[in-house]
Amino acid sequence: MRAIAVNLARLLAAGALVGAAGVLVIYISWRFFYPYAQEWEARGEVARLQRQVNALETEHQRLQQQARLLATPEGIKIEARRLGLLKPGERSLRFMTRPQPRESSPLPERASSEASEPLHNSPEALSPPPKPGANDAKTRAQPHRAELKAKPRPAQPRSEVTPGD
């Protein structure tokens, strides 16, 4: 029994020694590598900030050029036209076109008779979007614009089919 106790004591002493050595290695490694890790992180931050400074300098140059242009009468005229301003007596014309469908559009294409119809005459353009609960007869106060312009359909005569014909 005494041999087992001695072996156990030696094993515990060796384990404690290995554990202490491990802690010492970890501490020395941390003290040695931590400053390098901080430097690595700081270099990344410096690179990010340098990219930001470069972008801001480019934007600053663009704004300075725009300010120089706007200080001239021609620049003021160009900016006024861009904003849609007109000289006294001028009239503005705007041409509305339909966007061209894409080759791989997920939406189905409209029929050709629908496509030739102008956008501003469509019932969707004339009527506001339906409100929640607008289909409920109790919550509906006024008829929809499309309903005001709807023409009644003429009654179709029903043909009777008798069995055995």
Structure description:
This protein has 165 residues and is mainly alpha-helical. The chain has a domain at 2-82. It contains 5 helices and no strands.
In angstroms, what separates the terminal alpha carbons? 114 Å
Major sheet attributes = none
Which parts are unreliable, with pLDDT below 50 for 5 consecutive residues or more?
A: 112-119
Mean pLDDT: 75
Element pattern in H and E: HHHHH
**Overall morphology:** elongated
**Which structural class should the secondary elements be placed in?**
mainly alpha
In percent terms, what proportion of residues is strand? Answer: under 5%
The percentage helix is: 55-70%
Give keywords:
mainly alpha; 165 residues; 5 helices
Strand and helix layout:
Blueprint lengths: L1 H69 L2 H10 L29 H4 L7 H4 L18 H5 L16
Summarize the structure.
By secondary structure, the chain is mainly alpha-helical.
